[in-house]
Amino acid sequence: MTWPAAAPDFTNPDLGTTEAPGRVAKRREDLADHMASARSSLWRAGIRPRPRPRETLLLGLAALTLLVGWVSLASFRAGRLSTGDLGPLLTYLGILMAIHVTFIISGRRMDQILLPVTAMLGGLSLLLMSRLPQDLVVQTIAGTRFQLAELQLLWLGIGFVVLAALAILVRQDGWLRYYKYTWAAVGIVLLLLVFVLGQEVNGARLSVTIGPFTGQPSELLKVILVVFLAAYLADNRALLARQSTRIWRLNVPPLPYLLPMLAMWGIALAVVIVQRDLGTALLLFTVFLTLLYVATRRFSYVALGTVLFLVGAFVLYHLFGHVRTRVDIWLDPYADPLGAGYQVIRALYAFGRGGILGTGLGAGLPQAGSIPAIPAIHTDFVFTGLAEELGMLGGVAICGLYLVIAERGLRIAARAGDEFQTLLATGLTLVIVIQAALIIGGNLKLVPLTGITLPFVSYGGSSMLSNAIVIGLLLALSDRGLGRVVPPPVRSRSAREAAAVPVREAAPRDLRMDAE
Amino acid sequence: MTLPSGGLPSGASAPGIGTALLRVGLALVIVYSGLVLGMGWWQVAQAGPLTNDPRNPLVLAAERNAPRGRIVDSRGQVLAMSVKQPGADPLRRYPHPAMAPIVGYKSLLFGTGGLENTYDGQLTGFQQLGPGDELLRKFRSDPYDPSELHLSVDVRLQEAALRAFGNDRGAVVAIEPKTGRILALVSNPTYDPNQLSDPATARAYLDTLRADKASPLLNRATQGRYVPGSVFKMVTAIAALDSGSTTPETTYADQPRQYQTGFRVAGFDVHDAPRTVQLDHPLNFYEATEVSCNIYFAHAGLDAGPANYVAAAARLGFGAPIPFDLPTATSQVTGGGGPYGGFQDKVELANAAYGQGEVLVTPLQMALVAESIADGGTMMAPTLVDKLVSENGNVQTVDPHVMSQVMSGTTAFEITKAMERAVNGPFAAGYAGGAAVPGVLTAGKSGTAQLADGKRPHSWFIGFAPAGDPQIAIAVIAENAGPGSQHAVPIGGQLMQQYLQLAGGG
What we know:
The complex is a heterodimer. Chain A is mainly α. Chain A has helices at 21-38, 40-44, 53-78, 87-106, 114-131, 148-169, 174-177, 180-197, 217-242, 255-275, 278-296, 299-319, 321-331, 342-354, 382-414, 419-443, 461-478, 493-500, 509-515, and strands at 138-141, 144-147, 199-201, 204-210, 213-215, 245-247, 250-252. Chain A has a three-stranded antiparallel beta sheet with strand order 3-4-5, covered by helices on one side. Chain A has a two-stranded antiparallel ribbon with strand order 1-2. In chain A, strands 6-7 form a two-stranded antiparallel ribbon. In chain A, strand 1 and strand 2 (144-147) form a beta hairpin. The longest helix of chain A has 33 residues, at 382-414. Chain A is globular. Chain B has 19 helices and 17 strands. In chain B, 52% of the residues are buried. Chain B has helices at residues 17-45, 47-52, 57-65, 100-103, 114-118, 120-124, 131-137, 155-165, 193-197, 199-211, 220-223, 233-243, 255-261, 285-290, 294-316, 346-353, 363-374, 409-424, 488-504, and strands at 71-72, 78-85, 88-93, 106-107, 111-112, 147-151, 170-175, 182-188, 263-265, 268-270, 378-380, 385-390, 395-397, 402-405, 443-449, 458-465, 472-478. In chain B, strand 15 (443-449) and strand 16 form a beta hairpin. The longest helix of chain B is centred in the N-terminal third of the chain and has 29 residues, at 17-45. The interface between A and B is large, with 71 and 62 residues.
């Protein structure tokens, strides 16, 4: 069984018709002529707009859904039909609209599903943040006082602009591909930064404050590590897959090639010990193992990695109090219902209260009187907050959105130009989808609760930024015009000359199209 | 198709990269299915238990936001209501503190007790409704639908019972035999829930209550476990008559002689309480009931045997907490585990047969014994709540239902006859005669429970009236008050009379 070779290309309006290739070409020519005459100025400027009908439709649906949610929330609060202050939502939708138009004008043949899905998640976040007590987070930036929803809108705005910028501007991957050790170094520096400057919050040393901003480098670390891993595995894939040593009944690769795996394991452990951040460690290790499997297609790696994971987990559990606490809370939150288990228990009550259909927006727990809400409802427990008010149906829908990201991401990976791009797309997808699964599972008491965020929904600038980078890169990868440059490290004079003028390996757009 | 193949030798076992990605995708689908199952577990399967969990702080939080439903008695008298206070959380007020053993308390500091606890979810309107209702609720501005609790209790009977006790410690449980509706449930001394509710007084008051040696916080009616004495002979009667080992006409030829010598069971002598009447001939069941003959019932119990005895007790609800809206203690006929069918030996069974031995009962349990006899052998499940009326107009009625079929109608009829005689017989004056309701045929049985350490005995009465068409069945215990005939019996009679007047007069 293989990935469907002729998967429908939603990004190409021409495919999927039953017309003969010749007629398609003819039609396209007519269309091109028409557009050329209509927007000759754009053409002269090198800009070739390309309609994105699916994205238009889905963004419209998302906008409509969010609008209904906004009105529902405002009406609940006002006690009568009311639209409330539409300002934040319209600002958000405006940003999305602008990005959509920019995408159309840019003419790139990018995936049309990812942006609406991400937009929907971000919109849910905006809805929830507007509905929580606004003084949960207060920050003064340039003399102006911002509160929770305003700040989240700011992060969403920045995030989507970064997303769009990457999606449109990244035309080649050399800067990611050939500097893998530089990226690895950056990652380690980030880790050290946390170690030196990190502040401890809730037992985890995650955030670093520089000037007025507080950031969580581990959010960026995960993207950087995926880039490094994709590059490393793409280079060494053949070796890792072919050679093997037999240890007991397992075919394992030769030990020298196992070193990266051990290094990765070490990084994950370091994250746990230095940052006290179980979630990120678990996320990185899972993504790493999956990438290793995709690169080599050997289960022995997964098995070996799982063994390493179990050993690490066992040792950490016995050596470190904060790990033990997390696991113990997970096993029996009622042992300390007012202390350590408080959050988890509160979350379960909220789930129970939500039921199948939910309490309705605004009717959930955070506003029930003077009793404080679930701690960290805007970060760790956003899913609980949404599942309470939107019910199990809402929760399933949110899970569905992440699965759609998974489907799109893996499809992009399957159709990518080469191994590096395949592995990069896979890794980026997994970073988002597994992170979401880990924190949702933690909320539901299926796995120990960790302090990672729900991508695009949790409050926070660092998380928004790094996840926006991930989707931005995925969108860029989805355009098969993405080219490769020849490697920059050169020895011979001729090669150096060649490197001076990047040669796009990708065929011209029209030729490629016909080739399919 | 441009799937990357790299320089990878396509080994026979290695799948293509497309397959690998497909597997990753499948794994993710499985993981997310797990998440959905988790949601289903907490949001559907566990939703009810979580919402009604007394530890759920949301219930408390909702209380502060939404008005809590009232609790009213059978005639609509308000027993509990929330009073709004400017600038503070609403305060729960209890116009009739006598109802504390039933209604309980709702304290801002100490949570809830009694029905306030049991029906917390419904009172706050927090309770999960059906999916349809839940959908409708979304379109309301107020998400809570607090219910008003309508009780079966009559506050007048409850307060009369409390007055009747005076300073005596004790408990009363009165039940409507045909339905199992509780008419009164008294525990004396009790406490003032108003003071527990008010944060200004709650802490000091709770300390006082805890220090009080009379344990006012203990609900004696459902959780007090007492030696029953002779009222327990009715349980022996049920076991003996229903198993057929004894008939109402059965006599024991040795019994008059044994009054003098004692009835020797395995080296232990069963004695009767001293009496001056009915000494000349062997007594039948009716006569033995009237003068409360220990020796007769010891014979009857031994004849029935431990298996029949324990089985009858189990049908009455012994051996497990009675399912009820308030927490109940377990009544027992024996400490259990003994080699003689649960009893240690014949001596324990013989003693149990007249309510001593290892027998411990709750007043609620004894009221249910009286109730099942009064209802022709059927025990109705005891209920406190008649219906719940929500603010939106949803009405949920609690229908009477049978808890167990204890004995045959014939057995119930014969025991009723014996209990009528215990109240109205020629020698009843020294026993249950004081319970007779004027103008109404009354059935009853007195008890004087002997205690160790030379303490004064507990005074007991169980009975019902009118015997032909029972409207009320009752159990009364006055702790360490002395002979049954002097304390519990008159209280029982007075309360039954009062209830019949109240019911008759509307």
